[in-house]
Amino acid sequence: MNVGILYFSGTNMTAELAKAIQNEFIQQGIKAELVNLLTHIQNDTTPTIDNYNGVIFGFPVYGGRAPNIVRDWLQKLRGNEKISAMFFTYGGVSMGSAHYSTQSILEEQGFRVIGSAEFLAKHSYNVAPGCNLVPNRPNEDDYQVARDFIRKLLDKMQQENPQQISFEAPPERRPKRKGNKKKTKKRRRSPFPFPSREEDCSMCLKCEEECPTRAFNAQTGEADPDNCIRCMRCVVICPDNVIFMGDMSDFSQKVRSWRGLTNEKLKQLKSKYFL
Ligand SMILES: Cc1cc2nc3c(=O)[nH]c(=O)nc-3n(C[C@H](O)[C@H](O)[C@H](O)COP(=O)(O)O)c2cc1C
Ligand code: SF4
Ligand code: SF4
After folding, report:
1. Ligand 1 center to 91 CA (angstroms)
2. What percentage of the chain has pLDDT greater than the value 90?
3. Which of 13, 28, 75, 273 has the most other CB atoms within 10 Å of its CB?
């Protein structure tokens, strides 16, 4: 058996879980390859997945779903009834409808989704001052859940006709408008800052090369606000450590009060899997 682990990761949290998942497959005697989707997403290309008996998709949760750039990109992939599973990392705020909405896309693309998992991982905005959500995750318990998930998923993958999982559809946010009058949706820009370079640097250009939306300009040291998705990749990969994110205390306070998130509650959150 040969498994492909296709992942996207901004601050490397999903990448860490992808590695742990790969290790567990290998421990179980299964060939498992990691495929970082960054360049595929940047260049609108797709990897060859024909050789894999199963595909595991790993994404961070952005606004309660897989990131939009990932959701758009997934629509290029053809599943051809291939067995697949998903996993997500999230920063303790909310999983939203990530399982349901991503599974829906994968099924539309022809994948058979037989398992999913969610892992706590420090919030991407912890790179900014004022934000400290689930700082020490993933921890050993989270990695143990990942290992258990893979062992049980493997059993299921080896069944003759493994059952697909199902997640409850999220409640409709607002009632559907009557009639078919089309309203053009204005994109609201959030009030939070964007990362920027704050000192001279060695101009290695990594920030441009590794930006999933090509929003960062190394010369000006600024992110294009129309394209930056605030994934924080430029902040974590800059070898000179000169890219910083502005203060995110407003964000942190808002999500904490909106969801009643105390440090105690955040500590009690557990990673989980669904088969
Ligand atoms: C734009 C953005 C939106 C996010 N939305 C959520 C969210 O809805 N719920 C949550 O718990 N965490 C959210 N997070 C935190 C990430 O899901 C979490 O830190 C994840 O582990 C990051 O993984 P990565 O390093 O692989 O990108 C968000 C992070 C970013 C950058
Ligand atoms: S990654 Fe950092 S050091 Fe390299 S060009 Fe960008 S800001 Fe400069
Ligand atoms: S500029 Fe924006 S989209 Fe690009 S790596 Fe930085 S945070 Fe991510």
Report:
1. 5
2. 92
3. 13
